[in-house]
Amino acid sequence: MGFLSGRNNLKNEIILTLIADDHPYLIHGVETDLNKDPNIKIVGTAGSYDEVLEKAEELQPNIILLDLRMPGREKHDLEHYIKKLKTSAKCKVIMFSNETGWARIHRCLDMGASAYIEKAISIGRLAEFIRRIYQNNELVIFTAEPLPKIQFSKRQKEILNFMVDGKENDEIGKLLGIEVKTVQSYVNEVKEKFSEAFGILPIRPRTLLLLASKLGFGHKSV
Question: Which residues contact 27 (CB under 8 A, 6 or more apart)?
């Protein structure tokens, strides 16, 4: 599951990128891939969570590719590292892992990561993802994890389409000719269905909207 490739509007802008992974062969492969892109400059690498904190503060990257499992994580919760990286470098953190599972993906995004990208299926497209994440303030999920099938009523589908379009409850109510409290009731039903299907409790609004768009909801969905 991913997104369509967007146009590269960076022109002469350079995205400073820090790679954090404890497997040298993987770092070499990522460097080889990213060095082909004129808009991306690899400013450094790190092999542990302590090292990535030091390098982030020193090098001030725009993007950090962060492996989910590296030495040092046992000291603190992952959220501690993500927040500290974003604070010290004012960067966007991309979780880069081969581990899957919707609950894990949601947890990483909920902790502040801008994206969750599965290593095994990102070969040849990583630069595209980095550009997209750098340019846009949006969450990105790219994984082979299958999307669950969810049954919605006609009204729930209508509500979901407007939610993905960015409509507030009062706007949705006016468009559908129903009261706001009725809209909220349908929204709660939709949240419950997503939570149950994806195994995510509770599911955050931004994640729900991203997953809904991947399921094809939204009048502007592609």
Answer: 19, 21, 45
Q: Is a pLDDT exceeding 80 seen at residue 6?
A: no
Tokens of 197: 């299907």
Global pTM?
0.82
Order of strands, sheet of 115-118, starting from the edge strand that comes earlier in the sequence: 40-46, 15-20, 63-67, 92-97, 115-118, 140-142
| Tokens representing residue 88 in the block | 């010290």
Phi, psi of 149 (to 5 degrees): -90, 130
Whether 88 and 55 have beta carbons less than 8 Å apart is answered as no
Amino acid identity for residue 206 in this structure: R
Q: Which tens digits make up the pLDDT trace of 178-222?
A: 999 999 999 999 999 999 999 888 888 888 998 999 899 998 643
Q: Which domains does the chain have, with CATH numbers?
A: 15-142 (3.40.50.2300), 154-214 (1.10.10.10)
- 199: region left, alpha or beta (phi > 0 left; psi from -120 to 50 alpha): left
